[in-house]
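The instructor's notes for this session suggest beginning with a concrete chain rather than abstract definitions. Hand out the sequence below and ask the class to guess, before any prediction is shown, which regions might be ordered.
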Amino acid sequence: MTGVLEGFGVIASIIAVGYLIGRSGLLGEHGQPVLTRLSFHVASPALLFTTMTKADLSAMVSLPLLVTALSTLVVAGTFVAVGAVRGWSVGRTTIGALCSCYVNAGNLGIPIAVYVLGDATLIAPILLFQQLVVSPVALTVIKTSRPGERDSLARLLTTPFRNPIVLASLAGVVVSVLGRRVPGPVLEPVTLIAGIAVPGVLLAFGISLRGSEMPGRGTDRGAVLLSVALKSFAQPLTAWAIAAGVFGLEGAPLFAVVVTSGLPAAQNLFTYASHYGTGVRLARESILLSTVLAAPVTVTTAALLG
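After discussion, reveal the predicted structure:
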């Protein structure tokens, strides 16, 4: 469990630095939006490109990934159904659905896969699924639901391919499929820029906490609590029920799929919400609360199934 606690500790410390930067006013009033735009348009695409070039695409065809996809569909669908009944906007509902099912597979998933599951490759299928399936669909829905974004059918269909994050992921997949090596002089600057992504997102998240109320209060209280309950409890329970009850998984494969499903909401969802100006508080508070809950959830899972 040391690795789990170390992973959470690193994330918490960078967020705390961001909060102190916000409190001090060091970056001025535009610091957080600039970091957000830098992460969304430059650093995150670079990170995803370098990640996808090394990804094993055969991992996309596996029973654990099917369980992850089904549990994702169940919890996201639940949030969308509630959002439709409550009359929440499409953008806000989409962000909430993402916070309910989109796990932090990168900066938390990798150390947990290494230290808890003993195999870093177990997180790769989730990274691929989220970047190649979930992100393009969700970002397209958010973009096309915004006022003034009612485009022609051709433009609507090509929306995912005009998103820098999706484009970078697809470019990395193409390189992986072709089996080519990116020349060092080209890859090295991209890798350096990619190093900005995770700390940039976490610092921007920390800055956004300055002056904010305690999470789970105010007008977004219901949506926040729903997304956190789905992410922290419903998704791992759903994954366990599908894996064990439907497909008969047991032992290490069952443990792995439940642990990865219980990871908290990814910090880059805050970047998406900030970039498109929808559900920002919902994303911030859902990510914060699900991250706080992730440690005890992971420890409990390990005690029951490990």
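Then share the key points. Residues 221-246 form the longest helix (26 residues). The mean pLDDT is 83.
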